[in-house]
Design a protein that fits this description.
Layout (H helix, E strand, L loop, with lengths): L1 E8 L3 E21 L3 E8 L13 H17 L4 E7 L10 H16 L9 H12 L5 H8 L2 E3 L12 E3 L5 E8 L5 H6 L7 H20 L2 H8 L6 H4 L6 H10 L4 E4 L6 E6 L2 H16 L4 E6 L14
Parallel strand pairs: 3-4
Antiparallel strand pairs: 1-2, 2-4, 2-5, 5-6, 7-9, 7-10, 8-9
Helix pairs in contact: 1-2, 1-3, 2-3, 2-4, 6-7, 9-10
Length: 314
Amino acid sequence: MFAPASVANFGVGFDVLGAALDGPGDTVTARLTRAPGVTVALITGDGGRLPRDPRRNTAAVAAAAVLAKAGRRGGRGGGIELSLEKGLPVSSGLGSSAASAAAGAFAAGLLLGVSDRMNLLSAALSGEHAADGSWHGDNVFAALLGGVVLVPSSDPGGVLAPFALRVPARLRIVLVHPDLELPTRLSRGVLPRAIPMGAHTEHAGALARLVLALSSGDLAAAGACLLADRLVDPKRLPLVPGGRASLDAMLSAGAYGACLAGAGPSLVALTEESRDAERIGRAAVAAWRRSGIAARARVHRIDRRGTRLIGRRA
């Protein structure tokens, strides 16, 4: 199973807005076993950093949730063995843990006859929760379902009903990843614990404008909404060396808007199909280089397929 990279938040869409990106992602291979439970046989591409303990591995936790639900329904025995190939860097803001969780849930679902992705949401969410201890479905639901998704709730005990936004095919996401890491736990730890009512109202209004602009195809207006965040990115951006200068460089190069990709440290800019897209990425890379930090840029389309089967092994 392949699950794509994703970006979330888009400034004012904290924990409620995510998008799957074409290009890199994580791959999970799964097989049924006689032994009960979920085991992780192999992880590659992570430099030995990720746990093989199935209680802590995001793909395994998601697969175990699917297995447990199937067991309650049908009383099936046996278990699942997973192998994970990481195609995304850890702590990058590219939805690395989400891709693993989505692939783990989808792989287990196919093995156990669960083909409806909406029935895998809670399992994928539980896998993402294992990564940082918080409940947020923006990345993992985008990776699982594909497209740009709005997530009204990530409450594991409530109704999980993300829905897809219609966005224009000309939308391009410029993603710039510096040679830095920013653990999600640290990035979430700097967020304010109390928000004035006026700030909350302003933030909610900006999110509503962003959703409307994306859905109507007004990418310039959508980009402006990325810059309206006064609650999240202003607290997180100082954690990223050279981040402010690189973000400003993207705007100067013609981006409609720019912000942190999820929890950071990567940056994301919103634009449309044109030569400007490549220029935006180069500007951010150059700005980070002036700060002594290497970075890589890529222009992405929206991945509308989400997690999917890419081949079978004997």
